[in-house]
Amino acid sequence: MTVTPTLTETRTHGRAENPTEDPAENRAEVQAKIGIRDVGKVFRIRGADRPFTAVDGVDLDVRDGEFLTLVGPSGCGKSTLLDLIAGLTAPTTGRILIDGRAVTGPGLDRGIVFQQYALFPWRTALANIEFGLEAKAVPKKERRERARHYLDLVGLTGFEHRYPHELSGGMRQRVAIARSLAFDPDVLLMDEPFAALDAQTRESLQEELLRIWEKTSKTIVFITHGIDEAVYLGQRVAVMTSRPGRIKKVIDIEFDSREGDLRADPRFGAYRHEIWTLLRDEVAAAQEQERTIG
Amino acid sequence: MADTLAVPGGSGARTLAAGDPEEAAGAATGTGPPGPAPASTRGDAPTADDRATNFFRVAAGTRFPALARPALLLRRTAALALLAALWEVLPRIGVVDRVFAPPLSEVLVAWYDLLVGGQLVEHFQASLIRSLSGFALAIALTIPLGLAIGWYRPVADFLSPVLELFRNTSAVALLPVFILIFGLGEPSKIIFVFYACAWPILLNTISGVRTVEPLLVKSARSMGLGPFRLFQKVILPAAVPTVFTGIRLAGAYSILVLLFAEMVGAKAGLGYLIQDAQFSFRIPDMYAGIITISVLGLLFNLLLVTVERRFSTWRTTS
Asked: Domain spans of chain B?
């Protein structure tokens, strides 16, 4: 079952004070920031007689400035979907649109943050952040200034000249986030960025990411396998089916207020339970698949 | 939010303490930064190569602090002192024949005479020029070749069979061929050294290019880097430490194999000195030549290890 969210659906600003808004107002918003239209990706695997379908018939719109989280059982093609949006691989079927234009390859209008940071170990924190700016041919002086600015933004002032191996996991991920923000992409694609961090670091980075998102108004697609994380961060949570991955349901996350401990809000528990129920069957199906494939 | 900002700062200070050179020993035994993250990146996982490199690195790193710690210095020089003592005493008390193995003091006197007489400098110079020429030639020619093979699949497919064949052909087996083609003069010896040095550099360069962390490539590609920039900004810097491992190995070979060439046909060089001294029964001179070549090898390796360290500081992960 595929539920396609449409723009006429009630749009809610999860973070806003006023959760009620006139739906008619949203019709003026013609075009989604990211449009995923009936996208499928099939891989050919050497030695296997059948091709491998990672995702199939995915339909999803991400609005400009939205924070969308994507959850699904392991191996459901979440990362494949992110690679497709990033333009690192081309879809087998369907189209991916950014601002209405089809994605043909990677570009600096989209930034990716990986779970394993992917920092260049021979570059200092500052030089890592400058990397995307070099690709964009920004002059050296301006590069330096912007890199410093984003290092400050992620709270790492004073760590400019540290190499990645001299930083903790959380700090490395901050550098990676700063690197992706520095070349000022419209869209930030995050592939389980906090999964390798300890619980405390993860929570503080989640809060900071929300702060940065509010400050920079990026469109964020955030993959996670944590239901709590998905509910906490997302304005909407897209739940995927087991392989081949499809969008099972998209849930709007609305809180009256984000003050205080959001996780203690009864609605948080309700959302959590709803997603957990949706995922339970998919996880079982995914495990069944793994068993039969061996 | 202020609280949130304070936390990373605190944890950062802790981490950096662990990464401090003073604490390097602690970091090496696993007192890394908190959290499971650092060990999980592929770049941190030590390969056999890394371990070998680290071994040399540790050895070189502790050489200088050792001077400050007498106990360690004593432990490190004890074996050498014992060897010297045995060399001096055993021939004198007649355990070994002092004609074939003269005491160390006689060897050192012979060494000094050769130095003062100018022969040692002459031979040393001849050897060094040959070694360095072959070595430099190997660096200049095989690094670009290795990069091409590692980066372009078609080049690899084309050259691999030939390279596999030659790789398994000993340089020593080819020396007669080199002499036939290039004569007994300098070119054949330099080519011989070049041939022996080329393999470790070539193979390490290829592996350096091929084993670049795929995630780094993916990350760079996601930032819109084309093939050329990707090679320049990611593949090359990532391969540098592995290439240097090859260069260091080649440095050792350059001296080891040259000796052989100089023993087969030469009128100068430390290999010639050793061979000639043996033929004319100047046994102390022979040992003087051997000691010189050992010290030369040692110093050369030390130099290369230092250079290698300079170029790959970022790889010294816990």
From this structure: 104-315
CA distance B194 to B205: 16
Please, are residues A41 and A19 in contact by the beta-carbon 8 Å criterion? no
Q: Is A171 on the interface with B (CB under 8 A)?
A: yes
Measured CA to CA, the distance from residue A190 to residue B60 in angstroms comes to 42
The predicted-structure confidence for B74-131, as pLDDT tens digits, reads as follows: 888 888 899 999 999 999 998 888 888 899 999 999 999 999 998 899 999 999 999 9
Number of other CB atoms surrounding residue B52 within 10 Å: 14
* pLDDT (tens digit per residue) in B4-59: 333 333 333 333 333 333 333 333 333 333 333 333 333 333 444 444 444 444 44
A141/A136 Cα distance (integer angstroms): 14
CA contacts within 13 A on the Cβ side of A293: 12
Q: Which domains does chain A have, with CATH numbers?
A: 64-93+103-293 (3.40.50.300)
Contact A135 B9 (CB under 8 A): no
Distance CA B83, CA B65 (A): 24
pLDDT value of position A282: 79
Establish, for the pair of chains A and B, how many residue pairs have beta carbons separated by less than 8 Å: 129
Is A202 an 8 Å CB contact of chain B?
A: no
Cβ distance B9 to A208 less than 8 Å, yes or no, reads: no
**B104-315 placed in CATH 2.40.260.10:** no
**Are B8 and A170 a contacting pair at CB < 8 A?**
yes
Answer whether A7 touches B (CB < 8 Å): no
Which residue of chain B comes nearest to A194, CA vs CA?
A: B37
Give CA separation, B173 vs A67, A285, B192, B258, in Å. Answer: 68, 63, 10, 14
What DSSP line would sit under B250-313, residue for residue? Answer: HHHHHHHHHHHHHHHS-SSSHHHHHHHHHHTT-HHHHHHHHHHHHHHHHHHHHHHHHHHHHHTG
Residue B248 to chain A, least CA–CA distance (Å): 20
Q: How far is B140 from chain A (nearest CA, A)?
A: 23
Sequence letter at residue B213: E
Residue among A87, A108, A155 whose CB faces B8 most closely = A155
Would you tell me how many other CB atoms lie within 10 Å of the CB of residue B250? 25
